[in-house]
Amino acid sequence: MRLLTLLTTCLSVAAAATLGKRAPTPGQLSQVTSFGNATTAAGFYIYVPKNLAASPGVIVAVHYCTGSAQAYYNGSPYAALAEQYGFIVIYPSSPHSGTCWDVSSKATLTHNGGGDSNTIANMATWTVSQYNADASKVFVTGSSSGAMMTNVLAATYPDIFKAAIVYSGVPAGCFVSASGAVDAWNSTCAQGNSIATPEAWTDVVKNMYLNYTGARPKMQIYHGSADTILLPQNYQETMKQWSGVFGYNYSQPQSTTLNNPQSGYTKTVYGESVQGIYAENVGHTVPIRGTDDMEFFGFAS
Ligand SMILES: *[C@@H]1O[C@H](CO)[C@@H](O)[C@H](O)[C@H]1NC(C)=O
Ligand SMILES: *[C@@H]1O[C@H](CO)[C@@H](O)[C@H](O)[C@H]1NC(C)=O
Ligand SMILES: *[C@@H]1O[C@H](CO)[C@@H](O)[C@H](O)[C@H]1NC(C)=O
Ligand SMILES: *[C@@H]1O[C@H](CO)[C@@H](O)[C@H](O)[C@H]1NC(C)=O
């Protein structure tokens, strides 16, 4: 009996180890080990819903520092929402010790530069072709380090991502390492001391994908006023960045509404493509608002 249990365990471990070679199991977080150009060692986990839409959308959900694909799968609402709306969720997993994302190297801050952003973009491209997904419904979101990466992906792969939701990050390029280090911490930025004009932040984005003239993802930015890890000035800087990229006047938002979408939150809309939500007295990180995310991404109306 014991031997049988042992044998069964061995068999299921072997089965798990070869999972990447098989099609991901619907309704289960599955690892994909072979997907074309993995330019860094970032892990690729995928959730294909049992209720897969005919031409599904894709959401890339990027974990926070110290997190993992598994932790973000468990701690975010996207897999459950995938069953409801039929989209696929990609959960990338950081290859770096401490498991933050590389948002500091020249490689990751450049379109097709060979950094983590490139690897994640390739996961999205692979998923679109593998599942006949709808390329006009490819989205990205993330929390903290994953929110920084979300801004970086929006800047480096505007051709892939159609919308992005940022939960408590910093502007794209704010965490840059002057020495080019991979996965570096940048305390100037974290402390809210990287302050620039909308024009300067716009150039930071445009320089990540030179000569790109196509559409860019619409952006929704959340930040808490009591964030002591990535100081709230990063909210202002991120809003400057994306309002600048879209040609909105940062000093003149279209509308500002108090207690929206909930008491103590303030929503500022610059136009169709940029909106921010500042959460009074909320620390690091603003809780994910899954139902609202579905609206922003266009799965729900
Ligand atoms: C791999 O990279 C090459 C060169 O950048 C590109 O042409 C190709 O489409 C990529 N393949 C995948 C599956 O992303
Ligand atoms: C931190 O980022 C800022 C831009 O936000 C940059 O000017 C500075 O050089 C970076 N610090 C280091 C130590 O690389
Ligand atoms: C961008 O365009 C300029 C002018 O045509 C060209 O010199 C440069 O090589 C291009 N850069 C990239 C990265 O394609
Ligand atoms: C932007 O808005 C500010 C505040 O309303 C205004 O003073 C400024 O002239 C506007 N800038 C442009 C370029 O329209």
Condensed summary:
It comes from Didymella exigua CBS 183.55. With 301 residues, the chain is an alpha/beta fold. The chain is built from nine helices and ten strands.
Element pattern in H and E: HEEEHHEHEHEHHEHEEEH
- Strand arrangement in the largest pleated sheet: 1-2-4-3-5-6-7-10-9-8
The third-level CATH topology is Rossmann fold
Count the beta strands. Answer: 10
Relevant CATH superfamily: Alpha/Beta hydrolase fold, catalytic domain
- Count, helices: 9
Report Rg: 19 Å
What is the CATH top level name?
Alpha Beta
Low-confidence stretches: 1-20
Architecture (CATH level 2) name:
3-Layer(aba) Sandwich
Shape: globular
Major sheet: 10 strands, mixed
What this model shows, in words?
The chain has one domain: Alpha/Beta hydrolase fold, catalytic domain (Rossmann fold), CATH 3.40.50.1820. It is globular and about 50 Å long. 31% of the residues lie in helices and 18% in strands. The relative contact order is 0.12. Residues 1-20 have low confidence and may be disordered. The chain contains 9 helices and 10 strands. α4 packs across α5. It has helices at residues 2-17, 69-75, 78-85, 116-130, 145-156, 187-190, 198-206, 233-245, 290-297; strands at 29-32, 43-47, 58-62, 88-93, 138-143, 163-167, 218-224, 255-258, 265-271, 274-279. The protein has a 10-stranded mixed sheet, sandwiched between helices. The protein has 301 residues and is an alpha/beta fold. The structure holds 2-acetamido-2-deoxy-beta-D-glucopyranose (4 copies). One 2-acetamido-2-deoxy-beta-D-glucopyranose (NAG) binds at residues 36-37, 112, 122, 125-126.
